[in-house]
Design goal:
Length: 280
């Protein structure tokens, strides 16, 4: 029996069950000298990115960290093919990007669920767009993200964290080789944010994909990532490239936060983010 609407709103589901879609390592990303200019109302141009060069191997989880306005989201949008580059090249899965990135699934910070339909129908949306709706697979993905029993609920009957789980299941329904996430948990309360970080890692551990994850939070970047790219102040470019040496799987993230190596890297990142001279 389905839980009541009030239970669905106030109670987070149990941990992830089921199996991952498949075990692909994902698509690698290579950016070489990427520049992005935006037109200004006075006819001039605003340079948002300048000379971003980085190689992300297949299956690596990489966070993009930096101050507001440094171009992190613009770079993510360029990799998605949503923003045209003014110079340089982006290669995804060995093919130079020229238009929309068909390898990628994108999860935005904003709630992008269709409010008038069920969680199941929201997950089915990309399948239907591809002409391959599969109700059993959509149900399995909802189970994978811990929402077994909630498939008939509409977004308004779910908590914020549960809606994020539906968004993540819908992203997985695209079966992407590259996952792009733009501060997906930024609007959540602190406890729900940790829960979602934990669940994201559990799904990723089952089937690692290449992930580019935008965040303002150095702690979140450390907990989730293999590698952290720190962007400097505008025009954005990578000023630090930090490896995260914490073994996977990482288990209970609350325990990871107590580790000396977590604290040490957190202090290094925080110092750099608060030092303007380091971001120039």
């Amino acid at each position: 029996m389905l839980p009541s609407a009030s239970e669905a709103t106030d109670t987070e589901p149990a941990g992830i069950t089921g199996t991952a879609p498949h075990s692909t390592a994902g698509a690698g990303v290579v950016a070489e000298g990427v520049r992005v200019d935006f037109p200004s109302p006075d006819g001039s141009t605003l340079r948002v990115l300048d000379g971003v060069t980085v190689t992300v191997p297949p299956g690596q989880f990489v966070s993009l960290l930096g101050p507001s306005g440094c171009g992190k989201s613009t770079f993510l949008n360029a990799v998605a093919g949503l923003v045209p580059t003014s110079g340089g090249t982006i290669t995804v899965g060995g093919q130079q990007l020229d238009g929309l990135n068909r390898h990628a699934g994108y999860m935005f910070q904003e709630d992008t669920l269709l409010p008038w339909t069920s969680a199941l129908d929201n997950v089915l949306l990309p399948m239907r767009a591809a002409g391959k709706p599969d109700v059993a697979e959509a149900e399995r993905l909802l189970e994978l993200v811990g929402l077994s029993g909630f498939s008939r609920r509409r977004p308004g009957e779910l908590s914020g964290g549960m809606r994020k789980r539906v968004q993540f299941a819908r992203l997985l329904a695209q079966d992407p080789d590259l996952i792009l996430m733009d501060e997906p948990f930024g609007a959540l309360d602190a406890l729900t944010k940790i829960v979602m970080q934990q669940e994201l890692l559990r799904v990723w551990d089952l089937a690692p994909r290449t992930v580019l994850f935008v965040t303002h939070d150095p702690g979140e970047a450390i907990l989730l990532s293999d590698r952290i790219l720190v962007f400097g102040s505008r025009p954005g470019r990578i000023v630090f490239d930090e490896q995260v040496g914490i073994d996977r799987p990482r288990g209970d993230l609350s325990q990871v936060m107590k580790r000396p190596d977590y604290r040490e890297l957190y202090d290094v990142l925080l110092h750099r983010l608060m030092s303007p001279e380091d971001l120039r």
